[in-house]
Amino acid sequence: MSYDNILVEQRGAVTLVTLNRPKALNALNAAVLDDLIAAFAAFEADDTQRCAVLTGSGEKAFAAGADIKEMAEKPMADFYREDYLSKWYSHFTSAIRKPWIAAVNGFALGGGCEVAMMADFIIASDNAKFGQPEIKLGVAPGMGGTQRLTHAIGKAKAMEMILTGRLMGAEEAEKAGLVARVVPQADLLDEAMKSATLIASMPPLGAMANKELVNAAYEMTLSQGILHERRLFQILTATEDKAEGMAAFIGKRDPEWKGR
Ligand code: CO8
């Protein structure tokens, strides 16, 4: 399948998706978001693909936000009738059960920051800048920014960023817990691909279950989350990959995962 606004490449078991509107700093218009949904749905459906990386083309931006030019003239009735953002939002959260990483180069602002925060984790280049500057446009984040940023970095920093539109650099973002790792700009893709390849080498059902469990920490009380964890642990003991993983450990050999 070909796309107009993104590049998609399979590298072994890793799908690399690149936002490709560099002249508009990879701003997320409806066409880009529709391409992203299609590419991630194809990734999710393809059993040979076990982890994805999402990045932005050019050195300047991962994505500078939702497309302001597209939103500027749109009447409120259309935003409401279309339930603007809901299909993209639900697709990138609950519909993607396989792991994926955001490799953030340059600006990740507004919707760009929100899409990055939907990833299982973020690896940032040293020139990355994160922000939710929607207040400066007279709106608010619309795809989870107020919630995910607050979960990630706490109320004080999230409130300051969201109320002032201040951007946060990569080093501060790592210290604050927004990103897993900061790497030099030149190494970003290699480092993200290395992490993705490692994840892709893990048992696929285990990867899916572990992702689900960490995400449950955002949705459930502690006791519900721990019960959910125990049940999924118990369920995983019935998989062929559990038998293989434990036999391989005891037999001092590499496991061969079946995804069953
Ligand atoms: N939308 C549309 N076009 C954009 C956007 C954008 N978000 N950001 C940059 N561009 C375009 C510029 O208009 C410009 O185009 P042109 O050359 O045709 O004039 C080109 O990209 C280059 O941008 P600049 O000349 O502005 O580059 P600078 O280096 O001077 O500045 C900045 C870079 C600081 C990133 C600046 O472009 C900027 O502030 N951009 C807007 C950032 C912003 O406000 N983002 C939030 C948007 S609102 C939002 O995301 C709502 C979230 C809820 C929905 C989520 C849906 C995914």
Which molecules other than protein and nucleic acid are bound? octanoyl-coenzyme A
What would you call the shape?
Answer: globular
Can you count the helices?
12
Distance between the amino and carboxyl termini: 28 Å
> CATH superfamily of the largest domain, called what?
2-enoyl-CoA Hydratase, Chain A, domain 1
State mean pLDDT (0 to 100 scale): 96
The parts where pLDDT drops under 50 for at least 5 residues are: none
Beta-strand residue percentage = 15-25%
Q: What is the H/E string?
A: EEHEEHHHEEHEEHHEHEHHHH
Pfam families: ECH_1
GO molecular function, one term: enoyl-CoA hydratase activity
Protein name: enoyl-CoA hydratase
Enzyme class: lyase
